[in-house]
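Hi everyone, sorry if this is the wrong subforum. Our group has a chain we'd like a structural model of before ordering constructs, and none of us has done structure prediction before. Sequence below.
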Amino acid sequence: MNLANQNAQGTRPNVVGQMSDLIQEFPGNTYNEWVKWYIEKMPEAIDRATLKISAMVENLKSAIQFIHEDLIREWVKDLVLTKTFIGLRFQESILKKISNIRGQ
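Answer:
Right subforum, don't worry. Here is the predicted structure as tokens:
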């Protein structure tokens, strides 16, 4: 569920509101008061988030059938070998250049 939500961005502020601001704005004290207040303030937010995440779950269900061990192996090799080498070598080069510029 969390993976689907991350990809769908179903609980982003533009969908469900800026929660840190809303909780500060909330005048009540109890959970039940919070639920009532939030639903009145953002009446379509839960449904909109649910629809976005549900659509992504369906996309993931469709995509999962195309994942196999060889594909996973290639992904792991790319991450562990290629991206690590390129990322860390570039980082090392950048740090050396900055050090040379600063004379350290």
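For your construct planning: Residues 69-102 form the longest helix (34 residues). Residues 1-66 form one domain.
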